[in-house]
Amino acid sequence: MTISSLTSTSSDDLETSNATIRQAKDVDEQDFLRFRPSYHLIAPKNWMNDPCGPCYDEKTGLYHLLYQYNPEGATWGNMSWLHATSKDMVHWAHVNKTPSFTPQLPHDCKGVFSGAMVPHGPRGEENMLTAFYTAVSYLPIHWTKPYHWGCEKLAIATSTDGGQTWNRDESSVLLESPPVEHKEDVASWRDPFISAWPEMDDQLGLPRGKYLYGLIAGGLRNKTPTAFLYRIEKEDLTKWKFVSTIADVGLNHSLGKASGEMGRNWEVCNFFTLPRQSPQTGKDAQYTLMNVEGVGKDFKSRHPMWAQSSMTKSKDGKGVILHPFKSGILDHGSLYAATTFYHQHTSRRILWGWITEDDLAESRYDQQGWSGCISLPREIVPLSFENVDPVMLQHSLIAPTFDFSKADQSSTTGVKISTLGVKPAEESAALRKGAEYHYIAKPSTAKLPINSRNFELSFEVLINKESSEGGVSICHDADGKHGVKVVYSNETIQVIREGTTSDPDVNTSTITVPFAPLRFVDGTFERLRFHLFLDNSVLELFVNDRLCITTRIYWQHEEAIQTSLIRNSGESNYQNVQIWSGLQKAMLDEGADADQDALGIDGVAHL
């Protein structure tokens, strides 16, 4: 559960509004639509944040995604869950117009915080959904504040009608508090995640497949961020038994430049295995996903990140400790609260995240009547590269994030290295139907055939000693002004937003991220592959499937809709340019022009 800066006061003190599209007198329709994206999953109105409970139900063919929602206004508060479903992961409809869960029971009277979901009953019942969430009964809660024991509980809810209605009552609490052995040092404890973990079975000496495992994210005050590991009876998901905390990395630990800082507290933690043998452990690569708080000199920054770890028994022999030896940032921009699910039907791990409104002053949220959206689905993949120059293994941007053996460091021939990658899920291609398409093998001019703020763009840049920069200027005017520049130069990727607006309520600072293209033993360099999605104010950028930057652009100049490749003093070699202009709308149930043919009488998308 991501907690806004507004949590310094209780939810009762939070200012709320009744802003609604085309209904509320205090929200102008032009204000509502000015920066609103069209092909991202988004709430009908008001504040939204963390994606919760992503899963796929093979029996119905539906993807489920719930998210944190404030039914009372466009700023943080009254934390509830709204529920959307999809047949293809990119076209969505809400199950109900009202939240599935709201703060109404004694144990969750102050908020229904983030959690997980499985597409069956707690004892394996068919035709049922089971949600696990953090029930909050006291505010404020924050890792910087004294912990109020018992303010966070693990609770369960079930549905037998596809999420139309949910069953939960005072008996729904599964865990009353964090483990009592951490009563004196717990800093936070929330955001349950549940999955099988065969490698943890092995580490604990248990038969594979008998148990599932749960993680509840948090931290130990002034000691370390961590997650609390629970063993769950596979035949009865209401039985959670504490095993141990899984990390003892200390405060603000980092493995190196550009590999991410592990901060002081974790939110929304996942674990997963990728079928790639690690040269350091000799086993399949083990990963944890953490949304990290308390980053930086002032401890106010945050980011989603991953860590590859080895496992050992804890000192008392009863639990397990993960030892991170490689790590990286999942997104260097405004995406947070990333979470995943394993798509068993296709053997893929799919990630979603919350795209924040942090670059717009909070005082403006109620004026536009909404805040935030959900990212396009992303796939987490293992990336491997062969014939890499072994000198690269000493590079400060490569060593902390790529997996390789010690022997590789002294090799005189090309080596194989691996890392974790993130790319747009293939399902995003469904948004292209009906879009205007252009393919340019080798562009002869800088200007691209784009005249809108709704497009997908991909292109390649060949890098060599004579040509070491390249990029694109997005949505500039006829004089080349007011655009956003996405540029690679001197081992950095920059998103330069200066000039897009003079509005003092908008952050237009440049985002600069270190990025080193790989060099191979034959002297050639890894080509740069840019893949961008622009959806009005939302920009999602992927570079070589191993760097992501999501950011917001609050455009001021309506005439600035042209896009061009950047040609500097050294002629950059661009090739394989692909453009899709006019991607399809994501929300099938939004607005007067909602696609009624795609909506069933149950309000669920049927594509």
UniProtKB/TrEMBL annotation:
GO molecular function: sucrose alpha-glucosidase activity
InterPro entries recorded: ConA-like_dom_sf, Glyco_hydro_32, Glyco_hydro_32_C, Glyco_hydro_32_N, Glyco_hydro_beta-prop_sf
Keyword set includes ATP-binding: no
Disordered, as annotated region: 1-22
Record-annotated Glycosyl hydrolase family 32 C-terminal domain positions: 442-581
Name the UniProt record assigns to this protein: Arabinanase/levansucrase/invertase
Ranges annotated as biased composition (Low complexity): 1-11
Family stated for the protein in its record: Belongs to the glycosyl hydrolase 32 family.
UniProt GO cellular component terms: cytoplasm
Keywords: Glycosidase, Hydrolase
Residue ranges of domain Glycosyl hydrolase family 32 N-terminal in the record: 40-381
One of the GO BP terms on file: sucrose catabolic process
Matching SMART domains: Glyco_32
Lineage summary: Eukaryota, Fungi, Dikarya, Basidiomycota, Ustilaginomycotina
